[in-house]
# Entry
Amino acid sequence: MKTQLFEPIKHYLLDSVFPLFCLVCQKEGIWMCEPCLQKISSTPVVACPICHKNNQEGFCCSSCKGDSFLFRHFALYPYKNSHVIKKILHIFKYGFVEELGQTIANLIEKDLLIHRDKFINIDMITFVPLHRRRFLERGFNQSEFIAEIVGLLLRKRVQNVLKRVRYTKQQATLSRKKRVQNVRDVFTLEISKMVSGKNILLVDDVYTSGATMQECAKVLRKEGAKKVIGFSLARG
Ligand SMILES: [Zn+2]
Ligand SMILES: [Zn+2]
# Structure
């Protein structure tokens, strides 16, 4: 009885303080209405993780191979101002996980399975961890959330194996050069024996410079992971 009463009141209060509008067509009452969701088409960004040159599968080009701990990288959407995914991820990152989580899950479900063949050799899925302090501030890890959806769709286990040992500035606020320094050696492995000999899908929400994902991949490779393949929802 209590929850039956509580839910409508909570929604009424939330709606009056933050009225919801579809991020695309402004229709009231929902973050993303069904027709708009269907209209968002996945235009994957598959490019070399290092020099960002587009290629068929997101492989490293031969001249960049030596600089990358990622074997390849795949993103479902471009990360740019004109694309609604940027708006969605921004709002998602700073809260509203209950409201927007379903929209994101629907999007991934709609667009990921078309590319299922790219992930057949994956043994396990992991994600870029947040520092404990940031996790407590936000209350959830957006990369873990995305990894869980990907895991369900691809029917692969998601394991939390990485740990962030240092609290860092947010990458988005830094220049490309500073981003590399900011995340250098900030990750360790929480459960080391799990990664050896495995092909690992490493998940993050957004890929821009790639510095964070490369640092995670470095740790995984050092512990014997066979290949680390990057997956992010969007790539800038
Ligand atoms: Zn709409
Ligand atoms: Zn390259």
Observations:
- The first strand starts at residue 72 and ends at 78.
- The pocket of zinc ion (ligand 1) is lined by residues 22, 24-25, 27, 33, 36 (CB under 6 Å).
- Strands lie at 72-78, 124-127, 162-164, 187-189, 199-207, 227-235.
- Helices lie at 2-17, 34-39, 84-93, 97-112, 132-138, 142-154, 176-183, 211-222.
